[in-house]
Amino acid sequence: MRNTLAYLFFPVLFxxxxxxxxxxxxxxxxxxxxxxxxxxxxxxxxxTVVYDTGADFLYLDKDFLKLNxxxxxxxxxxxxxxxGAGNSGPQLxxxxxxxxxxxxxxxxxxNKITPIIALxxxxxxxxxxxxxxxxLLRSPLEINFSEGxxxxxxxxxxxxxxxxxxxxxxxxxxxxxxxxxxxQIDDKNTLEGWFRMDLGCGSTVILTNExxxxxxxGELPKACFRTQAGGIGGGSDEVTIRAAKxxxxxxxxxxxxxxxxxxxxxxxxxxxxxxxxxxxIWSLYxxxxxxxxxxxxxKRNADKGTYMQxxxxxxxxxxxxxxxxxxxxxxxxxxxxxxxxxxxxxxxxIAINGRPVxxxxxxxxxKGLDLQGETIYTVKKADGRTVVxxxxxxxxxx
Length: 398
Prior knowledge:
By secondary structure, the protein is mainly beta.
């Protein structure tokens, strides 16, 4: 039986957007480190996807299909090799080989092949799929973080519409977008060149392994992070540091960034970019993308952002109450308070300070729980035991 409550939940959330703020033809989105928007597949199936400029087409989550009895809803299956940001290299992945019709706002497309991936392991229960540039960047596109909508624009974009925007140095190649920027980590370490625009990344800046290897970072304070789900392509290892400045449209100071230790995947070596720019940066701007003219325009908005903040729980956990009673820990900082307490990757957090996490709605999760001081985590271990851990939440990891 399909999960009817899930089907109804997201239309209600999206309908709460201010009608006055969203122009005709716009596609509302909810921002939670990623841009969540609704599409309709094959004229009748509502799906919540994230927009990922680091991807090409439509991908669907395997648990979304299973829980909603949709395994056979999109025709025949095959297999193909796919890679991504994870460290495992290309993997054999199931795909739907029959075309899938996509309606997003007033735009309609037909997806040729549709990979089936473990997306919720990376982003949590509210992600049914992701949508890449092939569908959303066929014409100029406004991404308005201020009001929470995307709007397809007619070409050419009127000059007066861009009056308050700054044009970035950009290139559009192989369905990807690169931006020229300058990163100064400290007085001894500076990188200048092309960075990939990645709206599928919830971080600030992540340097490739190769770019980081050219720097002298030995004396900098660091925090090492490992995740079992770093992206399509498996787990990932990275190091979190602070950087003095990031210069793109303007200058951001004292920001938290990371660099990859991966030897495979999109963050390893031999890449035509120094690193990824994620939504920790892009959400500070309203954006116009113009693929025909290889142009990216940005305007700073009122969002103060979280680009100077790092983790205070020293772990990453994603809501998987679609398949269990809790949030699955999928990443830990080495020697952080969570790891020292005994929490392990794969643990399921079932309660915080005695409150079942399944009772914490997505809206509250998005705002942040503001946990401080002595915090009690009730955790289910892989062997079925329930264990209680006490974390004293005080300082960020870096």
